[in-house]
Fold these 2 entries.
Entry 1:
Amino acid sequence: MKIVGSRLVYALPKGRKTRDIPLPGSVGVALTRHLEEFPPVPVTLPWEVPGGPATTVNLVVHGRTNVAMDRHTFNRGYWHSALTAAGIQPTRATGMHALRHFYAPLLLDAGESVKALSEYLGHADPGFTLRTYTHLMPTSEDRTRRAVDKVFGSTPDGLATA
């Protein structure tokens, strides 16, 4: 969904391309449980522009009255409440977009290729992905030390910076 003027419409994601993202079975289990407790609701909105062709989609995330929510309503009504309950101050830095900044370095740190990650995130250029997210990889120095230790057959006796 996106906001056009002040109205919600269905539309393709930014860049007008869809993305397939592999998810582990644990996410599937959690999603199944969520869908059992909160079944998807059919919601009809125009496609692309207000007054566009009416399109009905079963929404997994919807308002309490089974209506579509814009991102601002979701952030204020749900995301900020969840952050507060977790003891995190709601700020721009902890907004929904922060999930991308969690997801990307997590996958890079686990060894996912920059090319694959750039496709998951919808980036046209893997170089952009690398420039944007590598500084968020807190264990990269530790990995470097372990790699060098492995080459020299050393047992690390503590981490140090030369």
Note: The chain has a mean pLDDT of 87.
Entry 2:
Amino acid sequence: MHTFKQTGKHLSLQKWQVQNPNLVAGFTTRECGNSSMPFQSLNMGFHVNDDPIMVQKNRIQFAETIHFPVQNWVGSKQVHGANIVKVTKNVRGAGSLDFESAIPDTDGLYTADEDLLLTSLYADCVPLYFYAPNEKLVGLAHAGWKGTVAKIGPKMVETWCEKENADVQTIQAAIGPSIGDCCYEVDDRVISEVKAALAGFDDASVYKENENGKYQLNLQKLNEKLLLLAGLLPENITVSDQCTSCENDLFFSHRKDRGKTGRMMSFIGTKGV
């Protein structure tokens, strides 16, 4: 069962949208855009050497699809780190129609403001979504293997609990489409970091060793495990079963496309009533 339901040509996080009809949350695909190969066709990333005019057209077109004005979007320059920034309406438009104005050196964004769409970009890394209904908080985190072992997911949870007085037992998380363990082989260096992040709480579903001495790593399961260790309840975590490398007709994949490809976008925001 897909956690993210296909709505037109994008995926929507319907479970949360049923809870709150004013919530807009989901994940773009590579379909129905304006970019040419190898960025065909709905490339949302300015930083991959696509024609910026085409990326702008893609974003404006998608803004109309989800009925959330592009001038209300905000994005960051992702660096595979664990820096998290709270944003407000004051930064609306940052990174929405160019790369230069995006919030620097940041892989996690959250807000309590309405009419602000948080965005993040992917081509195999794990999109993390966060929602605290009581505090009206929404957040996104970009978790490649480096961000994952740096515990960007747990850091979002800790930030909300410490700075926003959120109750860890009511925080919800969703783990979006990413490269699956079926397609993601890593070496000892990565697995040693994974083991350190798990701090003795190893889980057989997170990685398995191959005959060649390398490992198949399940980044989605690793993020789920780390969020559970951070105190989230199992029933408040939902995990996609879609692999961006396997479903290359639907998704861009950095690994499958050998580094020259476009980017999908995760997004979450609450519309003002």
Note: The mean pLDDT is 96.
